[in-house]
Amino acid sequence: xxxxxxxxxxxxxxxxxxxxxxxxxxxxxxxxxxxxxxxxxxxxxxxxxxxxxxxxxxxxxxxxxxxxxxxxxxxxxxxxxxxxxxxxxxxxxxxxxxxxxxxxxxxxxxxxxxxxxxxxxxxxxxxxxxxxxxxxxxxxxxxxxxxxxxxxxxxxxxxxxxxx
Amino acid sequence: xxxxxxxxxxxxxxxxxxxxxxxxxxxxxxxxxxxxxxxxxxxxxxxxxxxxxxxxxxxxxxxxxxxxxxxxxxxxxxxxxxxxxxxxxxxxxxxxxxxxxxxxxxxxxxxxxxxxxxxxxxxxxxxxxxxxxxxxxxxxxxxxxxxxxxxxxxxxxxxxxxxx
Lengths: 164, 164
Hints:
The structure is a homodimer. By secondary structure, chain A is mainly alpha-helical. Chain A has one domain: dinb family like domain (Four Helix Bundle (Hemerythrin (Met), subunit A), Up-down Bundle), CATH 1.20.120.450.
C-alpha cells in the first residue's frame, strides 16, 4: 500500500494489441446486433424520435476506419456520416467487415508512442490518441445499448452483452 | 512502420490513473442520467419488458465499489444486485456519491502490477483486472445508453454523451 502511494502510477495497464482486441470484440458484438434486426426495422424503427439503428451503424462506420486511418497516417479525414452505399443490411454488414480489416491494417502501422500523442480527429476533436480510440469504442457501446432497447421493443432477443 | 512490425507492442497505452479518471468521468455522466429521470419513471418506466433505470443503476452500484474492493483487497465479494436502501432517486444518488469515494479509496490501494493479474470477480468471473474494470465501465455505458432511450421516449432530453 505504502509502495503504491510512493510510486506514481505510470506503467502499462493496457497494451495497444489488447486495446485493438477489446475494440474488435465489441465490433463483433455490434455486428450481431445489426444482424438481429429485420431488414425493414433496421432502417425504419425508432423510439422517441431517435435515429434508426441503421443510421447509428452508419455513424459507427464513418468513425471507425476513417478515424484509425487518421491515427495511422496523420492525414485529417472529414467526418462523413452519410454512408450512401449502406442501403441494405447486407451492405452494412459487408462495410462492417471491410472496416474490420481496415482497422487491423491501420493499427499495425501505428507506432507505440503514437497512442500518447495528441490528435485533432476529423479536424475537430482534440484529444490524446488512446482517449480518442476509447471514445470510438464507448460511442459504439452507447448506441448498441440503444439498439438493444429497439430489439426488445420489437420482441427480439438481442445477443448476450458479455459474448464477444 | 517497419519498426512497429519488428517491436511487439507491449508498452503503456493507458495508466491506472487515467483509467480511473475515465471511469469516474463516465460515472459522473451516468449520475446526471439518473438525475434526469422523474422519480416515478426512474422506478417504473420500462420498454420491451426491460428493467427500470433504477434497477439498472442498482446493478451498477452493486458492481462498482464492491468490485473495486475485491481488486484492492483480494477478498471475494458476493454480487448483490438488490440494493435494498436504493428506494428513492435521492437515495440512489447518495449511494452513487458514496461509491465514487469508495472507488477512489480502493483504487489508491492497488499496486500497478495488480492490473495485469487474474481475478475471479464476485467468485464467478475470471479475467485480468484491467479487463474486469473495462467490463464494469462498458456495462455502465451499455445500460446508460438504454436509459437515454427511456428518457427520449419520455420526451426528456438526456445530457450530452460527450460531456463528462
